[in-house]
TrEMBL record:
GO cellular component terms given for this protein: cytosol
Pfam families linked to this entry: Ribonuc_L-PSP
Signal sequence interval, chain numbering: 1-21
Gene3D superfamilies on file: RutC-like
Family the UniProt entry places it in: Belongs to the RutC family.
Protein name: Uncharacterized protein
GO molecular function: deaminase activity
Keywords on record: Signal
């Protein structure tokens, strides 16, 4: 009985391993440790993990500085959708997830930076739904290019209070 339980557990582990260890650009970056205790680097598997040498967010004093998020799915790193609607929702959700992983929430967002204003009206509708009555400061700029190139339509970052 003990042996078969062990065999079962091993089988489950083996079946689970390939998916979770899938080597994608999004999840191969190592855990980052700040060189100074006054800066805390945030990492959560529930938002896309950048392949580049950056953290999802850094906390300094009372503020959480979230990196510019591209519309990439957590775990797989795949580009989310092909339209501005789904990609806008994806970047907003990623920033929210990271802010919550840092122990805060959307009501404490103070500033948002939005890159790509081609579909400004549509992005604003989704954005307004997302924040509800909370209206953080924001800047929005037109951009010539966004990392990862074709298929990625938006980058967005936030700063929030802890
Ligand atoms: C900006 O978004 C529009 C769709 O809203 C897209 O057609 C365009 O390619 C995007 N620009 C960049 C630089 O990705």
């Amino acid at each position: 009985m003990r042996f078969s339980l062990f065999a079962f557990a091993t089988t489950v582990l083996l079946l689970a391993a390939p998916a979770s260890m899938k080597p994608t650009a999004a999840n191969t970056c190592a855990e980052r440790v700040s060189t100074d205790p006054s800066v805390k680097l945030i990492r959560t598997e529930d938002a896309a993990i950048p392949g580049s040498p950056i953290s999802q967010a850094a906390v300094s004093g009372d503020h959480i500085y979230v990196s510019g998020f591209l519309p990439l799915a957590p775990h797989t790193g795949d580009i989310v959708g092909t339209d501005i609607d789904s990609q806008t929702r994806a970047v907003l959700e990623s920033c929210k997830t990271v802010i919550e992983a840092a122990g805060s929430h959307l009501g404490k967002v103070v500033k948002v930076n939005l890159k790509n204003i081609t579909d400004y009206g549509r992005v604003n509708e989704i954005y307004a739904d997302f924040f509800g009555t909370h209206r953080p400061a924001r800047s929005a700029v037109a951009v010539a290019d966004i990392p990862l190139g074709g298929g990625v339509l938006i980058e967005l970052d936030m700063t929030a209070r802890v």
